[in-house]
Amino acid sequence: MIGLVRAFNWHIEIFRLRRSPETPVGLATATGTEDESIALTNLRDIDEEQVNMRTVVIIGNSATKAVGCHMITSRGYAL
């Protein structure tokens, strides 16, 4: 498990070098099961404790905004 944590932290650091610390990050763990959890955070506050082998990590782009508990990426139309 140490290797997984190290790899995760390494990948997140790469994104932190290129993206704003406020970039939204969605975490979906164990989707479709009783253990399902969905969280919205950002690159600055993401915590390796929130991520495991059952977690999908979605990192927004420069246009992505956190609106309530949702990540929204505008495609050029008004929101």
Write the layout of secondary structure elements.
Blueprint: H1 2-18, E1 24-29, E2 37-42, E3 55-59, E4 64-67, E5 70-73
Antiparallel strand pairs: 1-2, 1-3, 4-5
- Strand coverage percent: 25-35%
- Principal-axis shape: flat
Main β-sheet: number of strands, strand sense, barrel status? 3 strands, antiparallel
N/C terminus separation: 41 Å
Structural descriptors:
single chain; 79 residues; alpha+beta; three-stranded antiparallel β-sheet; two-stranded antiparallel sheet; 1 helix; 22% helix; 32% strand
Explain this structure.
With 79 residues, this protein is α+β, with helices and mostly antiparallel strands. The chain is built from 1 helix and 5 strands, in the order H-E-E-E-E-E. The strands form 2 sheets. It has a 3-stranded antiparallel β-sheet with strand order 2-1-3, with no helix packed on it. A hairpin with a 7-residue loop joins strand 1 and strand 2. The radius of gyration is 13 Å and the shape is flat. It starts with a helix and ends in a 6-residue tail after the last strand.
Care to give the gist of this entry?
This protein is an alpha+beta fold and 79 residues long. It has one helix at residues 2-18; strands at 24-29, 37-42, 55-59, 64-67, 70-73.
